[in-house]
Amino acid sequence: MRYQRRTFDFPWFGVLTAVAMPVGFVLAIDGHWSEVGVLVGTLVTYGILVGMLTVLIDDRALELRLGIGLIRRRIPLDTIVSVDAGRHGWWWLGPGAHWTPSGWLWHAAGSRAIKLTLADGRRLRVGTDEPDHLVVAIRTAASEAAGRAAHR
């Protein structure tokens, strides 16, 4: 593995927990245990599905995994035309994969990101807390992959 970084969704998870705890407490006092179970189940499901974003780079692809990896996307390095560091203004949408006017956005927290343009013209942003490092990692891996392909 050339690169691996996990970004956790502490802000949104914290807000959801801060709202759910007092509600759950009141429900528990009133004996509404099934509703408490729904609240806890919702928080656990949220964490499992989109509570973090893992970005991986190997010799062939950039891979994005939300939560425990049930939602994922693999982008071959040879399809990446350009990559730059930037920001996105869509942080209020919460974590996950979202369609935006500037293409897909995959993120867990914050507003820093990398911007990718793919060979077919599609655009994608990936949220990260270290955009400059990720840009260098993608460019290096893509360049080395292109070199290996040229020598075959």
Layout of helices and strands, plus pairs?
Layout: E1 3-8, H1 10-29, H2 33-50, E2 52-57, E3 61-66, E4 71-76, E5 80-87, E6 96-100, E7 103-107, E8 112-118, E9 123-127, H3 131-150
Parallel strand pairs: 7-9
Antiparallel strand pairs: 1-2, 2-3, 3-4, 5-8, 6-7, 8-9
Number of DSSP-assigned strands: 9
Question: Cα distance, first to last residue?
Answer: 22 Å
Decide which structural class fits the backbone.
Answer: alpha+beta
**Succession of helices and strands:** EHHEEEEEEEEH
**Count of DSSP-assigned helices:** 3
* Average pLDDT for all residues: 87
Principal-axis shape equals: elongated
Tell me the strand percentage band: 35-45%
| Main sheet: strands, sense, barrel | 5 strands, mixed
Using only C-alpha atoms, the radius of gyration works out to 19 Å
Q: Which parts are unreliable, with pLDDT below 50 for 5 consecutive residues or more?
A: none
Query: What share of the residues lie within helices?
Result: 25-40%
Strand arrangement across the biggest beta sheet: 5-8-9-7-6
